[in-house]
Every structure is written in C-alpha cells, then in structure tokens.
Design brief:
Radius of gyration of chain A: 15 Å
Number of domains of chain A: 1
Number of strands of chain B: 7
Number of helices of chain B: 3
Radius of gyration of chain B: 21 Å
Shape of chain B: globular
Largest interface: A-B, 69 and 48 residues
Number of helices of chain A: 5
Helix content of chain B: 10-25%
Distance between the termini of chain B: 35 Å
Oligomer: heterodimer
Shape of chain A: globular
C-alpha cells in the first residue's frame, strides 16, 4: 500500500506540467508573485490544514497549495499578510479561523463558497509553533 | 523558523481551474525540429547527406539557438523530508532551453540531492546519482535529445521516471552504487 508521501508524489508530474505552461506562469505571476521561484505543496484531499501549515513553515511562509482531483486542480497561493492587510480583514470580517485538523478539500471548498469570482482573499490566523487557533 | 513564536497571518489567494482536458497530458506547446531536419531530399548535392543518414549516422545532440536568460524553479514538498525540484532554463522567447528534475531528501537537517535528471552538457537526457554524502557516484543515459520537441518529451519522461524510481534511487544512494 502506498504511503501518503508516495500518493502526493504521484501528483507531482501533472502539477509540474501545469506550472511550466506559459499561460499558467504569466497568470500566476499577475495573481501572486513576481519571483520565478515557487514552493509547491501537493496535497491529498484528506491531508490536514495542519500538515499544509507545517510545509508552509518549511517553505518560509510562502508557497502554493495544490490539490489534484480527477476533475480539476484546486490551487491556493499562501503568503504572509501585512499588518495593514490583517487590520483591514479584521474590520471587514474576513479574518477566518481555521482548525488544523480541517481537511484540505474542506478548506478549499470553504474558500469556494465565497462566490463565483475566481480569486478570493481570506486571512487566517497562525500562532505559536505554526499552529492555528480560533480568533 | 521565522513563523514560530509570534503572531502571523496568512493571506490566501485562491484560483480554481479545471484540468485542461483538451490537450494530451504532458504536452506543452509543440515545436518543430529546428536543428537537423531541414535537408530536402532528391537534389544531387544532397545525395551524400542522404546516404550518410541511411548508413545510421548518429543524430547530433540538440543545441539551443539562444542562451538561457531566465530560470524558473519549482520545488514540490511532498513530506517533511522529501522534495522534488523542476528547474526550467528559458531563452529570451521563454522557450525551454534546458531543464533539470532533482530528487532530494533531508538528512541531518540538510537537503541533499539523491538524483538529478537533466539535459545539460549536451549529453541528452541523463541521470546523476548521489550517495549519502552527496557525492556523485554514477551517471546513466536515458535518451538522446536531438531537437526541441525532444527537450519537452524528455522532461515529461524524467518527471514520470523520477517518481517511479524514487525508492530505488534512495536505495542506491544509501548503498553508494
């Protein structure tokens, strides 16, 4: 039986092909980054958000979460927010607590509930030792 | 890590795209062979070239027309101790010039290469294997690269192969042979 690491590795070729397409590179550069270096976190649907945050910490707080299902890629760019952005999120009620045991597919589905706009911004709270806490 | 011990927040930008079903998997933009495929047959002056080809003259290794001006680096973290890196070297037209696929693992707190698949050095696609001290102990040829299309196809094969053979690569790395 394949380990979770092996299962994640199986998604790597498909994601690697996706990210090297020029359309994706240019669209992604507009959306989130200017650098030509990315850390990508391939995830299984039942990986936890805690696992993702551990890898995000390994990556220095800046990475791209990718969930590959049979039908589609689901992609979230994770990057540190500025104190000003956090303040705005607190004011407009978009500061979102997420439990570390939450599964990745639930997390991405939750983000999808914000509507039909392709890009949405949400702020979550990460506290001591990289663990999430309700706000 | 910098994230530990202090209040942090994440700003999450999400983009959802359906998988592209209209393009065969693993095929990027298609290019014609631009280096060695242009000799029209039938003219007297070309007869000797045709004969050389028929005699099995090996193809010349592919050489890019333009040098690398930009490098894209994608690192895939698949656990706390294992990762793969795809390096894409592109020319000023953003065409792929060279690439490498690197399998690494964390040993004693340091990322070390286990295997590197690449087409650098005009050798065609090949693998470098490294021992636990990250000393290269062998190279293995995979396939020749004679035109631009081969560059992309060899990268697709390398991606599949590095995943398929990751355990074997680690086993060989541990043994150093």
């Amino acid at each position: 039986m394949a380990s979770r690491e092996q299962l994640r590795a199986r998604a790597v070729p498909a994601i690697a092909r996706l990210v090297r397409s020029r359309d994706f590179r240019s669209a992604f550069a507009e959306a989130a980054y200017e650098s030509h270096e990315r850390t990508i976190i391939p995830a299984l649907s039942d990986d936890t958000v805690g696992y993702v945050l551990d890898r995000l910490e390994d990556a220095g707080g800046n990475a791209v979460l990718v969930l590959l299902t049979e039908e589609k890629f689901q992609i979230a760019a994770l990057l540190p927010a500025s104190p000003a952005r956090i303040a705005v999120a607190k004011e407009d009620g978009t500061l979102t607590p997420v439990h570390e045991d939450c599964h990745v597919d639930m997390f991405l589905d939750y983000l999808a509930q914000f509507g039909t706009v392709v890009i949405r911004r949400v702020t979550a709270k990460l506290v001591d030792q990289g663990r999430l806490q309700p706000i | 890590m910098q994230l530990k011990g202090r209040l942090q927040a994440l700003e999450i930008t999400r983009r959802v795209r359906p998988a592209d079903r209209t393009r065969p998997p693993g095929r990027g933009p298609q290019y014609g062979c631009t280096t060695l495929c242009a000799m029209p047959p039938g003219k007297p002056n070309n007869r000797r070239l045709a004969d050389m080809s028929a005699a099995g003259e090996p193809d010349q290794p592919w050489a890019p027309e333009l040098p690398t001006v930009r490098t894209y680096l994608y690192t895939f973290l698949i656990s706390a101790t294992a990762r793969y890196t795809q390096r894409l070297d592109c020319d000023e037209w953003d065409r792929l010039v060279e690439w490498a696929v690197i399998q690494s693992r964390l040993i004693d707190g340091r990322w070390q290469r286990v295997a590197v698949y690449d087409i650098c050095h005009r050798k065609g696609a090949h693998i470098h294997l490294y021992d636990r001290e990250e000393r290269e102990f062998t190279q293995v040829s995979l396939k020749p690269v004679t035109c631009r299309r081969d560059v992309e196809e060899a990268l697709d094969e390398a991606l599949d192969r590095v995943i398929e053979h990751s355990a074997e690569n680690e086993w060989r790395s541990d043994r150093g042979k």
